[in-house]
Amino acid sequence: MKGILLKIQEGKSKKGFQPIEEFGIYRRNLPHWEGPGHLYFITFRTYQDFILPEEARQIVLNSCKFHNNKKYDLYTCVVMPDHIHLILQPLEKRVGAFYSIAEITHSIKSYSAKQIINLFYKSYPVFHRQDACDTEIEDARVTKRKAGRTGVSPVKKIWLGESFDRIIRDENELLEKINYIINNPVKKGLVEKPEDYKWLIIKGWLE
Fold first, then answer.
1. Contact 169, 175 (CB under 8 A)
2. Residue 45 pLDDT > 90, yes or no?
3. What's the pTM value of the predicted model, to 2 decimals?
4. H-helix or E-strand containing 87?
């Protein structure tokens, strides 16, 4: 494929995450296409379909918002119980070179994972005690369910290592992806109207 840089390795080199200066492809389990100035639809999932409780969803949303206007321009984001969708456009890291998707997703995942694990340690320390008996753990799970929290297992890992990302090719595809993200909580039966879902960001509407 003439004119396209093909990289088989992960997006992080020994020198750290490298900014994107030209169009290229790299592959892990999934192919990843990147180029300067593109808009991306990104999805990443929780490890073993772990269900994020409400407090954890807020942590993830805050992490996505924190890097907005710093590493990327965030168009749309929804934090679902077991996955996240984003539409964003990476910003320049230096003149002519843009933040990579690998660096962006790492920033969101690593910070939010640490905060979520800390949340579980503080809220339910019994899950992390070596000497905790089955009765104690089950009692803690019942307490969590009564409190409306649905993540009921001890966690040491939050996210799958790899994310799905796709370059958005035109305005029609952008509108299609935005509409998909907006309606995701409704289709899953979590709310009746998109604006009622607390973990949804839409640039210029819900922020």
1. no
2. yes
3. 0.74
4. strand 83-90
Residue carrying structure tokens 């008996």: 133
Query: Quick one: which of 165, 200, 150 has its CA closest to 44?
Result: 165
pLDDT in tens, 170-181: 999 999 999 999
Strands (E) located in the chain: 5-7, 12-13, 16-17, 24-27, 31-34, 40-45, 72-79, 83-90, 92-94, 97-98, 164-167, 200-202
Give the model's confidence band at 56: pLDDT under 50 very low, under 70 low, under 90 confident, else very high: very high
Whether the per-residue pLDDT at 6 is higher than 80: the answer is: no
- Pair 144, 152: CB distance under 8 Å: yes
Beta carbons within 10 angstroms of residue 205's beta carbon = 11
Residue-wise pLDDT tens digits, 72-101? 999 999 999 999 999 999 999 988 888 999
CA-closest candidate to residue 51, choices 186, 155, 184, 194: 155
CB 42 within 8 A of CB 103: no
Q: Is 165 exposed, middle or buried (0-12, 13-18, 19+ CB in 10 A)?
A: buried
Structure tokens at 59: 């942590």
How far is residue 18's CA from residue 110's CA, in Å, rounded to a whole number?
A: 18
Domain ranges of the chain: 5-202
Q: Considering only the top CATH level, what class is 5-202?
A: alpha beta
Q: How far apart are CA 207 and CA 203, in angstroms?
A: 6
The identity of residue 13, as a single letter, is: S
